[in-house]
Amino acid sequence: MVTRDVVFPPDRHALYELHRYSPAIRANGLLFVSGQVGSRADGSPEPDRDEQVRLAFKNLNAILEAAGCSFRDVIDVTVFMVDPHTHFERAWAVAAEFWGEAPYPTATAVGVTWLSGFQFEIKVIAKLPDGPAA
Q: Superkingdom of this entry's organism (predicted)?
């Protein structure tokens, strides 16, 4: 049986326990981060769509930081959006605030019909820094 090397952000939000998942797992020099949404500390969605995207990135960055990474270490991104035909450009503009400069990670955007009350979700794979913490 494999022991999962779980990474939690300093301020866990209620969704981890409610839905029984880990925020991120370290494995083979990589960090696999679960989909992050724009949830408040109690697990409720941020109602403003742009702020929900910002909060999803802030939640993601807290996990990356807890693992000793930053968004610059991200190599693969998957985003899920409700109604991307209407909201993709706006969400992508907000995401650019966090994206950084080229070279960019790979990215896949998926349109979905349901995200448990959320409008945007981002999951990533990042390269862990070399050294004892990796």
A: Bacteria
